[in-house]
Amino acid sequence: MRKILSSLSVIFLMSVNGYGQNIPVDPSVRIGTLSNGMKYYIKKNALPEKKVEFRLAINAGSILEDENQRGLAHFMEHMNFNGTKNFPDNKLVDFLQSIGVKFGQHLNASTSFDETVYMLPVPLDKPGNLDAGLKVMEDWAFNATLSDKQINKERGVVLEELRLGLGPGKRMADKYLPKLLYKSQYAERLPIGKKEVLKDFKPDLIRQFHHDWYRPDLMAIVVVGDVNVDEIEKKIKDNFSKYKNPAKPKERKSFELPNHKEALVAIETDPDATGSGVQFVIKDSETYQPNVTVQQYDKSVVEGLVNMMLNSRLAELVNSNNPPFTYGSVYHGGTYARTKEAFQGSATTKDGDQLNALKVLLEEVERAKRFGFTQSELDRAKDQMLSSYEWAYNNKDKNESGDLVDGYVDNFLRQEPIPGITWGYDHIKKVLPAITLEQTNGIIKKLVKDDSRVIIITGPQKDNIKMPTEAMVLNTFDAVKMADLKPYEEKTKIESLIKPFKSEGKITKTETDTKLGTTTWTLNNGAKVTFKKTDFKDDEIVFSAISLGGVSVIPDADYNKTKFAFDALLEAGLAGLSQTDLTHYLAGKQVSAGSYIGGPTEGVSGTSSKKDLKTAMELIYACFTDLNYDPDAFNAYKSKKSATLTHVDSDPGYYFTNEYSKFINQKNPRFTSLEPTEKDWANTDYKMAYDIYRQKFANAGNFHFYFIGNIDEGQLKNEVLQYIASLPATGKSSTFKDTGYRPIEGGYTKVYKKGKEPKSLVTISYSGEAPYNEKEAFAISALGEVATIKILEKLREDESGIYGGGASGSFMKIPYSGYDFTVNFPCGPENVDKLTKSAIAELQKLIDKGPDQKDLDKYKEGEYNEYNTSLKNNSYWLQGISQNQVDGSDPYAILNYPDKVKALTVKDLQDVAKKYLSNGRSMAILMPEDGIANTPKATKTGTDTKK
Fold it and tell me: β-strands 327-334, 341-349: how paired?
């Protein structure tokens, strides 16, 4: 009888889902292929307005390099920014910055094993920008100049990028990757390449790579934005069809990740490793085939549900009072190779606990394999999946182009389906109800196999840490098969978060601001609620609640006992529900909310769909009135946090930042370290932190609530009166406090030594107290952006000494008024002195002459570009409207921003450079432990070397 029902179920699914059909292609996307084989995707999408996203996808990456070309696929990506037919030398970045495209932030590219993708967002606010963007894409595809001069200049930049990846992680990876990528080309073609090749290759080798692989039949151009599709298609045909493929094109081979009967185990340690972990990969028997048919799509849906249910169980363990690991997950999905998927799992653990973590991961899979899932688990997973599709569908007409474009890239490179959200949502509504436990349980039985297994264990090399042996690892798999396991026990379903109560809430005052488009209600308990209805998203509401005070009003002694406990408070859960209970309760709802106690403020923030606004209000209400007290949950948090921080000082970057922070805060008794040490935990009082929280959130009258999004005013009013107006209030008000502590005065050079790799970091800073001036605050921020342009031009492009870096300037208003201007960059230790002098020289030019007008114009265009996009973002408005409450800033700053940018002059930036960068320069430098002690001399307190 069961077999008959199963067969009927399959027949029903086939008839409902159209299994014999291919997955349709979103009809709103124009897809075509030129005569030379180049593919194009074009979609009109009006958000953001007057903007277009370009992508150039090339079906070629490091996997195709010859042995003497290792690293040149990635190097080629760099060279497309260093000279093309229409943008010689470094003119491309210069031009794009002039139209508002920021290098690195907007303009970028990436190279991986099998592909190279170039990314270019272009504002269409000026005539000619669209054609210019297409010309850039054409040059990237076919017209790199690849001059000897530019190739040799870029060597230093690429070698600096390689240098950034050095460290214990790289040293361990070099040992385990040959096993993870066993007998495959992938093990020999890491995209960053080999130092000896990058340093000495002949320029003709990269030209050959470009000739072989940058060809039309391996390319696609993707254009998504506020464009005319017919016009774009004609331009692509006119401009890109003329390019030819090589007469004898090299075969674009696919490469396998081979299967193997034996299990491969890598147990790797390093003295400088900062954490411990375990990973397993069990490769599929078959070569991966992308989803083409509806049948394949539906199978992936079932696999997705299995992944969700397994990871929900693991999350329960992580959130328990005795967590087996700090993080753990399993899934079936892609590997390094396009042609292979695998069942994979990983966990981060306490030192020496990797074997137990592996055992727990496998036991949870085995438990599901033996006993299956429960109906309530499946129902929750279905609700969660359907809710995600529904939210995406509700916002389908308000997707930004940047959220769409990568899907079309994936369709070209990996043949991933692009049916569009309308088909996806309609189809998932049909599919999900018919999926049974028998189907999900059938999937889980096939995940763990006895062959093609790779297990990787990593951790610190310390005398007191015992690592498992290979035999112990392999025995774990066998032991789990025989383990005495019990079925998963489902907890009672949670029906509600807040018990029903009658509210007496009232609105005592209503104010409107026509400029901002906001309405503010004052409630009977003194709380204020400001909301703004927008149409930026059809189904999104973002919210926050802010009160002034934060940790600034906590006495020093109490602050030091509680500062590391505040982040742990929500681990206990709300309203008598644990974190796991809350996760189950919120399954199928598009809502999140959390509370915090920060520097000058405390509050709540989150997001919600329209239909889940009531649940959001319940969460807000519970954050204020019903935070659980659970010392065991705190101890579990402390245990997980400690496990990730035990060896954090081994990381040179953290060590540098932490030690430097200790130095500049040496007169501040409230500072001990960036992350809690054992001593900090011993001094932490969870109960005191909990009591402080309850005290702060016992007075809703001191809070201002903000809601931005597609709000139904009647619905919001009902929920506000029910929940926010019912919150307790004391009638008292509070504000933040200046503790009086200040960083030490500048004029010093600090040198820290840490790490075995030849890596250095340089920080040049100017800071101090000064009366707040809005115009100067704006100018010093702009100065930081302009200084970044000049530092990258000089230190990266001219001197080939850094991969990335830059400057930032700010003027804070609270809790006291002061400025900060900082330059940061990583480099080789041998170049610290030279590059530091160059950076300081660039700052001196800004002091002596001010910036070039063209660089100020680049900054302005970039700001206009970002502002026009941000103005249609709910979170941007939430921040802009609430800022006035925190620091008393211009309530209309969000509207006046373009005028302020336009008003900035070269003299404004030079004035703040003269005023704030002429004196008090300080430097902090990280050198390797055997580094070159060739650092700039201090002007005040001398050089202090700490190791």
Answer: antiparallel
